[in-house]
Every structure is written in C-alpha cells, then in structure tokens.
Amino acid sequence: MTQAAHAAPDLAPPPTLEVRGGRKNFGAVHALRGVDLVARAGEVTALVGDNGAGKSTMIKCVAGIYPFDAGEVLFEGEATHISSPADANALGVEVVYQDLALCDNLDIVHNMFLGRELKKGFRLDESAMETRAAEVLASLSVRTVRSIRQHVASLSGGQRQTVAIARAVLWNSKLVILDEPTAALGVAQTEQVLQLVRRLADAGLAVVLVSHNMNDVFEVADSINVLYLGQTAAQVRTKDTSRTEVIELITSGSAGMAPGAVAPKISPDAPERATSATATTSDATTTNGSTSA
C-alpha cells in the first residue's frame, strides 16, 4: 500500500478548552453531574440553560474558583488541573463576571491594570499603562470612549462592559468567558457589546458566552452548549439547530425525543453531538437544591 493510500492525519488544532465529565458537589447537592464543553479558538461558544442548570458553577470551575471534583480538563490538548484563579490566569483564562468588578473612582487605564499595575522602579509606569490600554482598545475597534483617562463612573453600561472585556484581553488571553454581558443593557449598547464579542473570536480567541438571550446567542455564537440539571444536554453547531430545539433542550433536556429517552454522549472526536441529559427521578430530586446559575 502506498503512502498516499493512507488516510491523511487530522491536522486540526485541539480545542482551546475541553471539559469531559466534569462534576462538582456541594455536600449533598450535585451542582454538576457530568458536564462536557468544547471551546475552540476563533469561535464563540454559547453556554445556555435555565436557572439552576449549573452555568455559574461551570464557569467558576473553569476559572479556578471551585475545583472540579471529577472529570477531565484539557487546555490546548494538554491535560491540566485548575485549582485556583492564578492557575486559570497562567493558562490564559480570563472571566468577565456580571458585576464587572470595576472601580468607579478610577479611570479606564487604572481599571484595566487594577491589581497588575506596571511599575518603573518604585513608581507606577503611567505612560506604559496608558499606551498599552490605548492599543488594546484600538485593536478591539472601541471608539465610543471619549478618553481613556475618564473615570468609570461617567461611562454608560455598554462602555463599562467594553472596559471589562478589554481588561480581560489585555493579558495575552486565550480563553475569555463572558457572564451575561448584555443582561442590563439597552438595544444600542447590546449591539455594541455583541460586535465586540464577535471581534474577540475573529482575533483568534476562544470565547464562552453565558446568556439567557436567544437572540444574542444566535447572532454571535458558532456553537451552543446546553446545560440541564447539572448535565450537558447537547453541544450543537448554531447553523444546524433552531431556537425551538435549543429552548426544548433547556426546558426538558432533549429535543425531538420521546419523554425519558437518553441522548447519546459526546465523544472527544465529535464534540458537537448530543449528550445525556434526561435525569432520573432521583437525580432530579437531588438537583432541586442546585446552586443558582
């Protein structure tokens, strides 16, 4: 058999983040009971699910706030263990939470470098920080900010979200997780933030977007991961599904299946296939105490 007859090797790079069978318990409460997630560079992966499905717990485990109790985490194809936020930051994982964690009494530059200030000797290197902040905002095509030296207290909700996202990508990030970035924004500000989310992916970053808004999800996401009662119901390509199917997955854990049916598990080679989602009666009873997500 000639060499040409052999199948060509798969040269596709591994996902930036892959979680397999992640579990997290808080005492008797099973918050995560087998979650799978694949986030690829250059793509937006939406993480959706009803309240209590495990979304917040999931992103906190990836961010190192809570360690997974069981399961595998692979980062760029390498098995890893994230036991602290410092571990996550070292890998290139940055999270923008709903509260944004911005200081109103500081300007944009100082907020972007908060806790990681650049120094020249014993003094802050204001010039270097200002230059880097301006470069990052320019690279994200942010043009709505009047001055990078204006205080955050004077910014609109959309501008605040922009500053928080820019801070996340300032540190050579590889994976950016956005927790409900448009939750409290108006129509114009929402569109501004969604355009920024898309630009992050177009710049080569892996983006995980946590959202309840199906319009936002279908506008910017390349794939959608649905959580149901602490389990992954499915991860599907956005172009291959519909709002109706996603909502059915969110509310029942299955789409187009008979009640009680179990969807096939995601395999590492086919991360977008549906996964087991329908809980047993005992599991559902236990999960009623899940932490809110």
Automatic annotation (TrEMBL):
Stretches the record annotates as Disordered: 257-293
The keyword RNA-binding is assigned to this record: no
UniProt entry tagged with the keyword Hydrolase: no
Database matches in SUPFAM superfamilies: P-loop containing nucleoside triphosphate hydrolases
GO molecular function terms attached to this record: ATP binding
Lineage: superkingdom: Bacteria
Pfam families per UniProt: ABC_tran
Gene3D superfamilies tied to this protein: P-loop containing nucleotide triphosphate hydrolases (3.40.50.300)
Keyword terms, alphabetized: ATP-binding, Nucleotide-binding
InterPro entries: AAA+_ATPase, ABC_carbohydrate_import_ATPase, ABC_transporter-like_ATP-bd, P-loop_NTPase
Regions of compositional bias (Low complexity) in chain numbering: 274-293
Domain ABC transporter: 17-254
Residue ranges the record marks as coiled coil: none
Family annotation (CDD domains): ABC_Carb_Monos_I (cd03216)
Record-given protein name: D-xylose transport system ATP-binding protein
Organism (species): Cellulomonas humilata
